[in-house]
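Please check these two lines:
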Amino acid sequence: MAAMDTLPPDRDLVAIGLLLDPLRRALYGHVAGAEGEVSRNQAAEAVGVQRGLAAFHLDKLVEGGLLEASFRRLGERRGPGAGRPAKLYRRAAGEVAASLPPRTYETAAHLLAETVEQAGADLELQAAARRAGREAGRRLAGEAEGPAPAIGPVLGARGYEPFRDGAGLRLRNCPFASLAGEFPVVVCAMNLALVEGLLEGLGDQAGRAVMDPAPGRCCVAVHDRPRDSKVNQD
């Protein structure tokens, strides 16, 4: 994840440094994993601290660009006597990352994605990109720890932030969000292929990857596979 060019070069390092504090890390994790916005009371209760202490650290995370804040009345009552709006927190839409010494891998990724997209008429090149994604997924499955790793923890370790939704998993985060926003056709197809490869590598019953785009989450979802079904192999 990359900061905007107009920001100080050490801004990302400062933001990441905020998470060295265990309490801030716990607060960030709770807010980032929530389905919606989180109030100070909810965050404080979740990590077991007083509201004032939680508010202090939440605002530090806002200052660092890791969270965003807004104000909204939580009850249905409006007008005089309704009370002050509550301060609510959500994970920031921006991205934060740092490397020492500085590297520009994302620039290379953008160039490669743009090359594939500009060659859109070349179906063989697009097919090769999907095959590469699938093979990468199979390799990642082989690196998973444990005798029979489940797809949820494996996806979680890759940054997808899976959560159970009915008969399957949805993915709260897209690890390739900046690329997918600019080159959705290429990147989403490769992403789907990568998850398909993960599932194949984990075994027949791991699940079935499908395209299921929606605002604020990854375009791929994993549906549970009936116990008597088999994965179709290429």
